[in-house]
Amino acid sequence: MEFKHVSVLLKETVDNLVTVSDGIYVDGTLGGGGHSREICSRLTEKGRLIGIDQDEAAITAASERLKPFGNRVTIVRSNYREIGSVLKELGIPKVDGIMLDLGVSSYQLDEPRRGFTYKDENAPLDMRMDTRQSRTAKDILQDYSEGELYRIIRDYGEDRFAKNIAKHIVAARQKKPIEKTGELNEIIRNAIPAKVRASGGHPAKRTYQALRIELNRELEVLQDSLDEMIGLLNPGGRLCVITFHSLEDRIVKSNFKKNENPCTCPKDFPICVCGKKSLGKVVTRKPILPSEEEILNNKRSKSAKLRVFERNGQEITD
User: Fold this and answer.
1) pTM for the whole thing?
2) What is the CATH number of the domain that holds 163?
3) Is 143 annotated as a binding residue?
4) Which residue in 30, 88, 24 sits closest to 54, CA to CA?
5) Going by C-beta distance under 8 Å and a sequence separation of 6 or more, which residues neighbour residue 237?
6) Where are the alpha helices (DSSP H) in the chain?
7) Is residue 76 part of a domain?
């Protein structure tokens, strides 16, 4: 299957990201290379792009799409949490911009064998973004306790029927392992009242989201990576993050705010004595949202939010 993915908030992201035409930029979630191609088109011959992705299919697709830019592009198969190590190996101490397009790609959703979607009833419950790892969504369904399943479906899926879904999963797996998407779909249908199923979207949507986030440690990786990314920016460099989930957006918003104003002194102190200095400013006081036209053309862009942080204009010295 061809790797197809429509880049969300493409112009808005690259407009905010590329401020130096001969700079070095990192696309930490390369995907099919849509954002990266637009970044490269804005750079001079001296500019450089580093693309990072853990998905083998994405690497293959992006390598072909970015081939016209030759050796100005370096593609690395890794997770963006390893960005510091990747840049160190390439001999790059600082960059002029980093972008993340979080969540799952259209290709991953549309390729049944990847197991990300509830729409195919006979797909394996895989959901790995990096197929080099051994654990799959099937293992979570089999191994997690009822309490753990309830927690992830409640927190990551934000499903009000999380407790009942977890209960039904545990009851079903005692009879036989849950191996196919259709089996999980039926379990979830039985756990949700018929009236709710009739009025809402697909009843399994939130549980699939929760399993994917848990399996790939998406929120943990994001939480642990943002500070390092800001630290890797040159003065004036920008970090642009596109989120699709309220928990992702909350993490980004909170982190950017903390890095803009890290002071922990009580508000009634006349001067700061904690010594924590601002690393930059939040460019987007409110997130940038897709236009009505974009949502009409790509319904998966509906929940997208772009936030931008800019590193201080000069290096901070102790």
Assistant:
1) 0.91
2) 1.10.150.170
3) no
4) 30
5) 19, 23, 94, 95, 96, 97, 98, 310, 311
6) 10-17, 34-41, 56-65, 83-89, 106-110, 137-143, 146-155, 162-173, 181-191, 194-199, 205-215, 218-231, 246-260, 292-297
7) yes
118 lies in some domain: no
Residues 42 and 173 in one domain: no
Residue type, 27: D
Closest CA to 98 of 39, 44, 42: 39
What are the tens digits of pLDDT across the range 43-53?
999 999 999 99
Beta bridge partners of 73: 49
Given a contact cutoff of 8 angstroms between Cβ atoms, the answer to whether 13 and 240 are in contact is yes
* Residue count (the chain): 318
53 carries a ligand binding annotation: yes
Q: Is 54 annotated as a binding residue?
A: no
Give the CATH number of the domain where residue 20 resides: 3.40.50.150
34 annotated to bind ligand: yes
- The answer to whether residues 218 and 161 touch, using CB atoms and an 8 Å cutoff, is no
Instruction: Answer yes or no: are the C-beta atoms of 229 and 85 closer than 8 Å.
Output: no
Structural domain total, the chain? 2
22 annotated as a binding-site residue: no
Q: pLDDT (tens digit, 9 = 90+) per residue, 205-234?
A: 999 999 999 999 999 999 999 999 999 999
